[in-house]
Structure formats: structure tokens, C-alpha cells
Amino acid sequence: MSQPVPLTNEQLLQVLLTTKDATAIHYSEKAIIQYANDAMIAFWGKGRSVIGKTLEDALPELKGQPFIEMFRRVWNEGVTISGTDTPADLEVDNQLQTFYFDYEYRAIKNAEGQTYCILHTATDVTERYHSRLSARESEFREHKLMDELAASNKELAASNEELASMNEELTAINEEVRVSNEELTESRNHLQILNKRFAESEARFRMIVEQAPVAIGVLKGRQLTIDLVNEGILQIWGKKKEDIMDKPLSVALPELKGQPFLKILDDVYTSGKAFYGTEAKATIEHNGVLVDNYFNFVYHPLKYSSDGTTSIVVVANEVTEQVLYRQKIQEAEERLRLAVEGTDVGTWDLNLESRALVHSPRIAEIFGFPADAKLSHNDVLSRIHPEDKDLIRDEAFDEALETGVYYYEARIIWPDSSIHWIRSHGKTFTDEKGNRRMLGTITDITRQRQTLEELKSSEEHLRLATLAAELGTFDMDLVNGTLDWDDRCRLLFGISHNEAVSYEKDFLLGLHPDDREKIDNIIKDAFIKEIANGDYDVEYRTIGVEDKKLRWVRAKGKVLFNEKDEPVRFIGSVLDITDKKQDELRKNDFIGMVSHELKTPLTSLKGYVQMLNTRAKKQDDNFSAGALGKVETQINKMSVMINSFLNVSRLESGKIHLNKSDFNLNELIREIIDENVLINASHLIAFSPGTSIIIEGDRDKIGYVVNNFLSNAIKYSPKGRNIELRCETNDGYVLVSVKDEGIGIKAEDIEKLFERYYRVESKHTQHISGFGIGLYLSAEIINLHNGSIWAESEPGNGATFYFRLPLQ
Ligand code: ADP
User: Fold this and answer.
1) Rounded to whole angstroms, what are the CA distances from 336 to 24, 328, 427, 732?
2) Percentage of residues in the chain with pLDDT exceeding 90?
3) What is the mean pLDDT of residues 398-404?
4) Atom of ligand 1 nearest to the CA of 742
């Protein structure tokens, strides 16, 4: 073994370089790497090429990190800088990674104290750092857990406290419940007492209701079920108790539907407010009949609890009579108002003390002012005609003060100076304030006055006229049964007294016995509107009651009818026609005598003509036969004419009589046609008789009528025209008509055709001979047979004459 020898510097450095701690030596300000052991080279991760380079060049990633600056300070200031767990970012294996180091940069100084190198040692503590870090984290979590635990512990404590207090509350509540229970028991007892009282009061209520002098009913629940009624309400409702109890009102009184009451009751139920009705009209069925009555009533809601209405009490009071009475008064007032308005009456109200005048618009109009003018008492007085002023001021006023009634008729002067008549009517009275007042009306009576004047003068005219015409007048009031005759009328019945006369005693008994029945019937017919339309025109004979004188009277009158066509008045005039009548009778007698005297020679004339005719025919003297035939025709015509006159005179003196027998009318008509054709074949006469028609009557006289119709048709229509006769039965009558195509008759003539001696005056008729007695006689004959006769015609278009006779 060799002797131990100390290590050389190089050796020493080599040894030191093997230390596990990373070591490097730097010099200069820029920390040029002079030496670095393997450990340090490994940290840096760049291999041995770094030796001799400045730290910045060797490890460019250190830029921006504090280390290069630290080396500069150590070099310049000679200090030592160290750190633990210091992070450094190094690029190892081309990757920038963060490592943690414990390190020291120590300035190595020479004897003069000058730094000549920097000893750089470092230990990689990255692992230690991380493990310490995780240890700290877990410690932190633990702490947190502990904190939470502590907090929940606290909460627990708090809940515990709450629990405790709740327990206390529970105890308190329990106590309350106990107390309430006690109270409940108490109030139940109270309720029982109340219930009892209620039952008592309910019974009392029912009793009061039942015995109340007014009508009361109680309706329960919204259904308004009838719960309680008294006699009064049953009467109003017109129902029996057993029929309506416990039924809803709308079922018990179905007639209320459509009337307002059910709705009002429902509203009262809902609102809880009472309803008062006055003079309400209710239609309620009584014994099957709907009756309208008026009521004052109350619907009062009853509330037994705060929940609302439980029942409604109905109290009703019938006021129908008052209402109707008042309505009547209102109607009467209205009628009065209308009447006043309708009659153009003006009304006024005068305060006699203050002279204040209130008047209706009509008063202003009556005084000639516009309706809206307001007149003072003086305005009115100043309008009175000067001549009538005293009359109003003195006479009427004095009388008013005495009797309380004011009345005058006076003239007034209008603003346009025209004169009018007024009638004023008033009444004085003292009103409730002690004022003397006068109420009254004014009517414009100008028209009335004028009419009165006119009437007076026309009455005077009439009086003079009747006097001049010697007309008597009669006036029969058919309603009161009175008869009024003037002096002349009395004279015609041979009466000189002025006492009341009557239809039966004075009129009928005053008539000639032969005329009595006929005239009585005519008057009775006149009283039936549809028969004669009230027209009356007769001639009759009277035999004077006192002087026993026979007089002929022409009476003409008119019956007045009311709106129901009942006769109410019969007025007219009578005229003494005795002289005229006697003249006529004398004339008739004369005509009758002449006709009669003419008949005998004419009959013998006819006989000789017929004889001569027969002889001429035998001798074949045709000329003579023809001439004698014509003579016979003329004689026939003459004998018809003479017969007519004879008949007229007989008729006038009442000597015409019917020789009735049954005969065939168709046969008669055929005979008359044949006779006429024989005499005059100038017209085409058509007649197609059907079955034989047998009637009862005077064959000659009915024949006269048919002949008259036919000969007139021939006379009054041009030659060659048609004439058609018809004879038909219908409804118990036979109707005969003769229709021609002649000149016809004007309407105004038709009604007069049947009068004696009436002929139509016209250029057509002036050359046609006749006396106007044919139709007159025909009418009399048909009337004697109780038939009717008439004509229809259109001038220029022919005429049709008819007569109708009853069959049996
Ligand atoms: P008369 O023919 O003798 O004049 P009547 O009494 O027969 O008398 O007739 C009265 C009047 O009635 C006649 O004058 C005539 O004017 C008129 N009349 C009668 N029948 C007809 C007729 N068929 N057509 C037109 N007028 C007639």
C-alpha cells in the first residue's frame, strides 16, 4: 500500500463534480457558465454545450424570469441569494416545464473582498413541493368539513330550541281548547235556552200574523215557499189555505207570472232590503176569474243569522177603491179639461182683492189677441163694448156679490175693431188664504148670436110664408110621444082649443073613417127608414071634431131618425085642399058622365060598322071592307080611351072595384099581343110563354095594364124595332116586363111617369098623342092588387116597364 497523498485541485474538482447536488460556477455579470456538474447539466436539459455561454444564451427560456437579474446582483453586490420551493420554467426535452428548486447563488470573493465567481447550487424539490401542496389541500377540506359540522350542530341546537317553544305553544293551545270546550258547552246551553225562546217567539209571531188585522204572509227561502198566511192574505190571494201552504209562491199563484212581484221578491231576498209598493196593480185569480186590484204592500226580509235572508214577510193592504176613485176623479178632470178645450171655452181666475187675473190661452184668443198674450183685468174690461159696460159693472157684479154667481153676455171690441159676442160665467168664493176670488169661463158666442139672429129671421120668414100659404104645421116628438099642432093645423081638424093633442085621439079619430086605416099604415111605413126613407106625402079627408065639416087635406112631412135609424121626430105641414079637391071631383064627375054618355053611341057605332063590314065582305067590296076595318080599329082605340077616363073618374071618387077571378096570365098576355098585332103589325113582338101561370085578380084590369105597357112600347119606339115581353115566377111573385128599343126616359121623369096626366115633354113625344093617364091607372090597378110597378130606362136606349104581383 502506497502512502496517502493529498488530492490535486483537478482531482478535487472531479470529486466535487460527482455530488448529487447540482452545482455550477459562473463568472462575470452575465453569469458565464464556467463549470456545471452532471446534476446541473441534467436540470438544464441542454447537454454540455452550455459551458462557456452566458446564462441568457445558454437558457433563453429564462428571459422574463427573475434569475438572470439575481446573478447580476450577486456579482455586482457580492451578496448571496437563496430561495426554497422557487418555481422556474425550463425547457427540458424541448418542452417548457415548471420545476421547483431550493437554490443558492453565493458570491465567492478573494482576499480583497472582490467577487471572482458565483457558486450556484440547486436541488430539485418539485416532488416535495407537490406532495406538500396536496397535503395542504386535504387539510383545508378537513377544515371546511369541520366548519360545516359545527354549523349544522348549531342549527340542530336552534331546532331543538324551537321544538321546545313549540311544545310550550302546544301546551298553551291545549289549554285554550279546553277553555273553548268549556265555552262551547256553555254556549250550547245558551243555545238551548235561545232555541226555546225562539220557539216561543216563533209561536208568538205566528199568532200575531194570524190575528193581524192586515193581510200578512211569510215566504220561506229563495223558493218563496208559503210558510205562514193569515185570513187577510188568503182573501187577497183568493186561495184556500190548504191549497197553497208549503208551496212556492209561483206555484200557488201561477197568475203572478209575467207580473213584477216575483222578481221584486227575489231582489228583496238577495239584497236583504225591504221593498215598499204603493198602489201597485195585481191581477189575481179569484174563483177562476182574473181580477185586477190595487195594493199598498211591504216585502220585509227576515234575517235570523248573518248569512242572509231566510224569509220574507209580505204585508199588503188593498187600496183598489181609493185608486179607482182617484182614477175616476183624474178621468173626470181630464174629461173636463178636454171638454173645456174642445168647446173652446176659456177659463179665468180673478183675485177680487188684488185684481190679479190668471187666464187660459183661449181667453186671449177670444179677445182677439195671440194665444200666448197675458191680459190684465183692465185689459179685459177695456175691451168691453161701451154700451155693455154698465151691464157688466153694475148689474152682473152686484148680482155676483149677492148670489155668488156672475153671468153676462156682452159685446167686445177686438184690437182690429171687429165686434164679437162673449158669454162670461163666474162664481165667487173665499180661498184657503182668505182671499176673495172669482173663477169662471168665457165663451165666444158670436156664431151663436149670429145664428140666433138668422134663426129668428128665418123663423119669421117661415111664419109669414106658412101664413101666406095657409099652411098648418105639425111636430111629433116620437121619443116623448107628444104632438104639437099650430092653429091652422088644429083648424083643419075642426079644433078650436089650445090644449095638448094626441096622435090617436085627435089625429086618427079626426080622419074620415074611409081614410083612417090607409093613412095610419102610410105613417107607420114612414117611420121605418128602409121603407120610405122618412118621406110622407098624402091626401086625406078630415071630419071636424067640433064643426063636423069634411075637409080635404094635403099633408107633407119628414121623419127624422137617430144614429140607430130609430124614428125620433116627425115634422111637416098640412094644407087645406078642399076647394081644389071638390073642383077635381066635379071635373071627374063630369068626365065620368061624358065618358059614360059617349060609350053608348060608340057601342052602337061599332055595331053598325061591324054589320057594314060583314056586308061589304060578302059583296066583295074590298075597299069598303078595308075602310070599315080601319074605322073599327079607331073606334076600338076611342073606346079604350073613353074607358080610361071612366076608370079615372071612378078611381078618384073611390068607385073602382076589382072583379077578382083565377086566370092564366100567359094566356092573357098572348091575347093582348094578338090584338095589337092585328091592329098594328109595325114591330117585332117576342113572347115565349112557359107553363101556365094562374093568378087571382081582375082579368080585365090586369089586361089593361099589359095593354098599356105594350101600346106605349109601340108608341114610343120606331117602327120595325123589337119588343120583348116576359112573364116569370120567382119567390112567390110573378114578374111581367115589357122591353122596347125606343126613345127611353130620363131619370128625373121616370119617378113621375105614374102620376096622373103626366107626360114627358120632348121633341120626340110632342107628336105622339096621349093623356098621361095610362100609367097612372096601371099603377092604381097594380096597387089595388098589392103589387108593385116601376120602369127602368136609359134615354135613347129603350125602356123596360115592370109589374110584380104576389102569387095568391
Ligand atoms: P100616354 O102615353 O097616354 O101619354 P101614359 O100614362 O101611358 O100616357 O104614359 C105617360 C108618359 O110616359 C108618356 O107620355 C110617355 O112620355 C112616357 N112613356 C110611357 N111608356 C113609355 C115608353 N115605353 N118609352 C118612352 N116613354 C114612355
Assistant:
1) 148, 12, 17, 59
2) 41
3) 79
4) 24
Cβ atoms of 444 and 414 within 8 Å: the answer is no
Residue 770: CB within 6 Å of ligand 1?
A: yes
pLDDT tens digits, one per residue of 336-352: 766 666 667 888 888 88
What's the pTM?
0.42
Q: How many whole angstroms separate alpha carbon 760 and alpha carbon 742?
A: 14
Q: Does the pLDDT of residue 1 top 50, yes or no?
A: no
As a whole number of angstroms, the distance between CA 117 and CA 109 comes to: 7
**Selected residue with higher pLDDT from 5 and 621:** 621
Q: From atom 2 of ligand 1, which residue's Cα is the shortest distance away?
A: 770
Cα–Cα distance measured from residue 352 to residue 400, given in angstroms and rounded to the nearest whole number: 12
- 772 Cα to the center of ligand 1, angstroms: 7
Measured in angstroms, how far is the CA atom of residue 680 from the centroid of ligand 1? 18
- Cα 716 to middle of ligand 1, angstroms: 7
- The closest of 59, 55, 54, 21 to 40, measured between CA atoms, is 21
Which of 719, 722, 702, 724 has the alpha carbon at shortest distance from 786?
702
The pLDDT value given to residue 515: 92
Average pLDDT estimate for 4-26: 77
pLDDT at residue 405, rounded to an integer: 83
Q: Which three cell numbers stand for residue 140?
A: 383545508
Query: Would you list the DSSP string of 245-304?
Result: TTSBHHHH-GGGTTSTHHHHHHHHHHH---EEEEEEEEEEEETTEEEEEEEEEEEEEE-S
